[in-house]
Amino acid sequence: MNRQLLVNATPPETRVALQEDGHTVEVYHERRGHEGLVGNVYLGRAHRVLPGMQAAFVSIGLDRDAFLYVEDVLPRALDLESAEEEEGNGNQADPTSSGNDRPRIDDVVREGQALVVQVTKDAISGKGPRVTANFSLPGRTLVYIPAAREIGISRRITDEVERERLRRILEGFEDSGGFIARTAAAGAPPAELEADRAYLKTLAASIARRAESGEAPRLLYRELDLAQRVFRDLVTPDFQAIRVDEEAVAERLREFAAAIAPALVARIELYAEPEPIFERYGVEAEIERALHSRVPLPSGGSCVINQTEALVAIDVNTGRFTGKGDLEETVFATNLEAIPEVARQIRLRDLGGLLVVDFIDMQDPEHRREIFERFESELARDRARTRVLQLSDFGLIEITRQRSRNNLERVLTRSCPDCSGTGRVKTDLTAALDLRRALLKASMLFDAGETVRVRVPSSLAQFLAEEGQILEEIRSALGIQVEPVPDDTLPPGSFLV
Length: 497
Description:
Elements: E1 3-10, E2 13-20, E3 23-31, E4 41-50, E5 55-59, E6 66-69, H1 105-108, E7 114-121, E8 130-132, E9 137-138, E10 142-144, E11 151-153, H2 160-171, E12 179-181, H3 190-212, E13 218-221, H4 226-234, E14 239-244, H5 247-260, E15 268-270, H6 277-280, H7 283-290, E16 294-296, E17 302-307, E18 312-317, H8 327-349, E19 353-358, H9 365-379, E20 386-388, E21 396-401, H10 408-412, H11 428-441, E22 451-456, H12 458-466, H13 468-478, E23 481-486
Helix pairs in contact: 4-5, 8-9, 11-12, 11-13, 12-13
């Protein structure tokens, strides 16, 4: 697979795009004054303890308190065989998976208590950030979790010989607990892993020293900037290039690479063409398309993606595609075509939480099995933690996907001021009938024979002119003339008397 990283650094914004075989699959944004908090470590203070929710609100010096579940306070254990690859934001425990014998939040946290916590999820949809007391620190090849006592290997390293080699190296560390070998550790010599271990231990000790002095709440450690963070977490030896369009950022990235991955310094290139880098490689068009709900498929079918507060619904349609065989084969072909595009859109838009994919109904059990297996295989490329349920009798596949930051839509758009985020506005007929009711309700304010000027959007003015019966009914009922005045400064479906 041909992979490259594109870095567009244009103050006050930095954008990074990951491309695979010429297709943009992930895009990251960071804007001055709106930097993400994920990965930052704070000395916080428990503000409120809520036994009924088994959680606490923790002040970390922001406008909104952070949220700490009881599971994120308790010591954590790693899956020794298939540990998830981490990004320095802790493994979030599932607050719904609990046992009757677990400690209560008021047993482990008291109001006013100082806590070292790390942000695992940015503030999203009016909710404060989520934090964990089991913070983790990522390096190039390792992640260090001070509160853990086991070792783990990234599930993306599938070669058993390599997994065993890494396990022996990690077990040979003087303090073997609390380390995960990341994907980038595959093939790395022991000296590189040891250097990473020493760096992370030193960083953890520095955070601990800072926590011992000074008052809470305050910042103890700030995560790397976007370009450095994505380089550390994404770039592996198989990357063809890392192209940067700003010389200072490219030089800073080279210095960073020289310290953590010297072999990759030569892959960092300064992009100096007059055409903007995201235009040159098609990223700008991909971002624009990702802001629309409908995604066309080459055959004429489509996927429709709708984000709601509760879940993300993805619907696969045949559209204009009629196929060449019977209906079952047409449906199967459309579903197969949709699989890579749906998986790519999930990554590109950074859709998180609960996702429901509605594939077109298939009758053949073999077709259903193949669709599920191929879709599961495509989702395996995603770095975010996902869980996939089997295809249901209704043709639905349910997915839960890790969400730590605002997705692409929330970063780049805001709720429509006309429809308040519903995506719908009143039709001209509905607005015209509302206008008639409003005038009849206010009949005492008008004198017989009076001409009442009503400001309306131009589409509503045209509708009223073409459908003269509504204005005639108002004239007959009230004895007044209504003169619509076009005014496109008004939101659709509204009017002003």
